[in-house]
Amino acid sequence: MSAGAPEGAASAPAPAPSGLRDRHRAVMPEWLALYYRDPLEITHGEGRHVWDAEGRRYLDFFGGILTTMTAHALPEVTKAVGDQAGRILHTSTLYLDRHMVELAERIAALSGIPDARVFFTTSGTEANDAALLLATTHRRSNQVLAMRNSYHGRSFASIAITGNADWSPTSLSPLQTLYVHGGIRTRGPFAHLSDARFIEACVADLEDVLAQTHGNVAALIAEPVQGVGGFTAPPDGLYAAFREVLAPRGILWITDEVQTGWGRTGDHFWGWQAHARSGPPDVLTFAKGIGNGMSVGGVVARAEVMNCLEANSISTFGGSPVTMAAGLANLTYLLEHDLQGNARRVGGLLIERLRAVAAGLPVVREVRGRGLMIGMELVGDDGSPSPEAAALTLEAARELGLLVGKGGRDGNTLRIAPPMTLTITEAEEGAALLEEALRRAQHAIS
Ligand code: PLP
């Protein structure tokens, strides 16, 4: 279309797009990812299941995208949202809100960070942006350490600390980011080392990176278990060992708990607790599951760090009343029903079951995970990463009525993160469906 000649009534109307997929393609960005050759339109959900527009039911082994923390349409959350919506949808964080204060109190107490303050955002990206703003302001430095293979979001600042170009749409950066080893146990030059030696090597790498700076680094940001990176975790204690190098230099430790928080990893409420030897992080970010699908994110930091910003600031929608009511009801349910314990028990069984499946299927190189955050890495006949096998498994699983995620360094890892109310029966059912889907994928690639 030439400039100054907008399409209008005078020009011939474009042919009507046939279905929702075509309309999506016509109006949304090309880079907006969609799963499946024939993308799904999900219309409703209940418990661990969702239904598509044709009425087909699926067991949701990806919990939305780790966003359905407890269950789809959990009555407690739906009621809290409905009650709040009936009163008022939104005012402004310039006014007091009971749910917001109470949720902040609960999260501050749970965070493990002393004298904690909480700032609510609408997403994980924005939470990480806020964390970086705090750290760089507090330290008067725009140098940040991040992990290779990390993913932290989609804003200008958070893509600047995302360690894989495939997930960073631009290489321009407002930060000077230094990448260190350690996020993935199974990749990189230290993969063959024992856990203790791996940690030693990563610490030496960190020290080497720091020795090449002017010394004034603001923070290290890390996901305790890399999410988009393929549900891959370093050995326990890595970040405690890092902390021992960072803390004497005043460098802050930001833990990105967007995927790992709220007990999903089973053994710990936060991912950082697997590294707890040297105490809590300075800053913690969260999002995804806490709103059970409502847009709740946030950052927690020691008062001294949180209060370093000089100007007054609000987020128009961060902490809006309906989302706070949802978060509070969801967190209450999670704690009262010990869903961390459920993630440990059911997740443990599911990992065992998937390992048994993997033993008979060469397409699966590894099953790894903690609690209800489980990765299955797929390979071809020659043992090399097979994104094709992952894509085929996803399609086959969908045909069988099971939704899983995928990701990882090579796009060859299935990601399993169901709602944390998953029952043993559902875990068994999902594992059986996945076994069949993997069989079909293996058959197709061999
Ligand atoms: N941090 C981590 C670890 C994530 O996995 C994600 C999203 O996948 C983000 C941050 C960004 O969160 P959001 O998509 O809510 O902006």
From TrEMBL:
It is an enzyme of class 2 (transferase). Its cofactor is pyridoxal 5'-phosphate. Its EC number is 2.6.1.44. GO terms for molecular function: 4-aminobutyrate:2-oxoglutarate transaminase activity. Residues 1-19 have a biased composition (Low complexity). Belongs to the class-III pyridoxal-phosphate-dependent aminotransferase family. Homotetramer. This is alanine--glyoxylate transaminase.
